[in-house]
């Protein structure tokens, strides 16, 4: 580790200990504030790793379904977007009504352009 990272770690360890309900949010706050930037990034990387391989295995399974024999020509960007979108839908992070409205708006714009 660089001297700067060691200094940041020593500075962090000199702080009084406390209970933290959301360690990831704590390190994001420190990163935004510019306090211990390298240490914050390392902590965020470490805390972002899934605790089990179940999520990773599920992602590969979903990816295998997405890239089937009939969809093998999809671009990597499309595959990534599809998997991320599906994951966010499953987690309840997508507003279904807003999505339906967006798709309807897009369909009506496409229809209007093709009729012109």
TrEMBL record:
<dbReference type="GO" id="GO:0046983">
    <property type="term" value="F:protein dimerization activity"/>
</dbReference>
<keyword id="KW-0862">Zinc</keyword>
<keyword id="KW-0539">Nucleus</keyword>
<dbReference type="GO" id="GO:0005634">
    <property type="term" value="C:nucleus"/>
</dbReference>
<keyword id="KW-0479">Metal-binding</keyword>
<feature type="domain" description="HAT C-terminal dimerisation">
    <location>
        <begin position="9"/>
        <end position="83"/>
    </location>
</feature>
<protein>
    <recommendedName>
        <fullName>HAT C-terminal dimerisation domain-containing protein</fullName>
    </recommendedName>
</protein>
<dbReference type="GO" id="GO:0008270">
    <property type="term" value="F:zinc ion binding"/>
</dbReference>
<dbReference type="InterPro" id="IPR012337">
    <property type="entry name" value="RNaseH-like_sf"/>
</dbReference>
<dbReference type="InterPro" id="IPR052035">
    <property type="entry name" value="ZnF_BED_domain_contain"/>
</dbReference>
<dbReference type="Pfam" id="PF05699">
    <property type="entry name" value="Dimer_Tnp_hAT"/>
</dbReference>
<dbReference type="InterPro" id="IPR008906">
    <property type="entry name" value="HATC_C_dom"/>
</dbReference>
<keyword id="KW-0863">Zinc-finger</keyword>
């Amino acid at each position: 580790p660089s001297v700067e990272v060691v200094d940041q770690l020593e500075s962090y360890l000199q702080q009084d200990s406390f209970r933290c309900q959301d360690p990831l949010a704590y390190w994001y706050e420190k990163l935004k504030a510019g306090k211990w930037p390298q240490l914050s990034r390392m902590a965020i990387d470490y805390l972002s790793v899934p605790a089990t391989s179940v999520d990773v295995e599920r992602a590969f399974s979903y990816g295998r379904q997405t890239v089937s024999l009939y969809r093998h020509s999809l671009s990597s960007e499309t595959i990534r977007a599809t998997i991320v979108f599906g994951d966010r839908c499953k987690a309840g992070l997508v507003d279904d009504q807003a999505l339906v409205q967006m798709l309807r708006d897009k369909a009506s714009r496409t229809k209007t352009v093709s009729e012109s």
